[in-house]
Amino acid sequence: MILIDSLPDPLIECDFENVYYPSEDSFLFLDHFRKSIKPTNFDGIDLQEVDAVLDMGTGTGIIAIFFQMLKSINKRFNPRIYASDILKESILCAKKNETRNNFTSQITFYQSDLFTNFPSNLKTSFNIITFNPPYLPSSEFIKHRKKIDYSWNGGLFGFELLLRFLKEAKLYLNLKKEHYIYYVSSSKTDLDILNKEIMKLGYRNEMLRKTHFFFEDICLHRLRRLRD
Ligand SMILES: C[S@@+](CC[C@H](N)C(=O)[O-])C[C@H]1O[C@@H](n2cnc3c(N)ncnc32)[C@H](O)[C@@H]1O
């Protein structure tokens, strides 16, 4: 029997130059899930209560495919798995990686700017949402001129896209059940302002783990809705 804490990383390849190749931030998610998902619970949530999982900004699909691998080794974990990205190339790349890991059309993919192209019946569906967003501050001179900018450019302060996501995500969380949103932040942004904005949106924010990478600290966080 494969144990969750020794589940390997998914096999990932990427032939598309604009797609974000997994890095320290991507592995912060996988490392946390390996430690915190137990045979009967997902970071404290009963595994059988998890109906739908979304990996927003999926890139190569690494996080969504990891969930699919988990599903294949633990029958108690049987959610529908969704993944989306604004880039068509990411969706093509993630689908190839899904097949590379011996899953065929198990994950539902959407090419979408955040939730724009999601069907409305997915509202109030998700127990678990992950988003490794573009989180670096931009400059007023740089908009999204190149596709690869979608990987890093979080807006002038670095967190505008994340805040837009968190506003929209409220509609898609299943608030009747236990739920979490996991996201990554960088010390290159003003984390005090970001935390205040997140609280204003009605989320409880916990920092789970931190790692130092080149010129910044990157942190994995877990959010829960406090109120409607
Ligand atoms: C830092 S990368 C993370 C990729 C992957 N999840 C990982 O952890 O390796 C950020 C991803 O968010 C996507 N993205 C950027 N803006 C987006 C938006 N408005 N809607 C959906 N995805 C977006 C990018 O294309 C990119 O794939």
From TrEMBL:
Keyword Transferase appears in the UniProt entry: yes
A Pfam family hit: Methyltransf_31
A biological process from GO: methylation
GO cellular component: eRF1 methyltransferase complex
Positions of the Methyltransferase domain: 52-132
One Gene Ontology MF term: protein methyltransferase activity
InterPro entries: Euk-Arch_PrmC-MTase, Methyltranfer_dom, SAM-dependent_MTases_sf
Keyword terms of this UniProt record: Methyltransferase, S-adenosyl-L-methionine, Transferase
Keyword Amino-acid biosynthesis set for record: no
Segment forming the signal sequence: none
Protein name: Methyltransferase domain-containing protein
Native source organism of the sequence: marine sediment metagenome
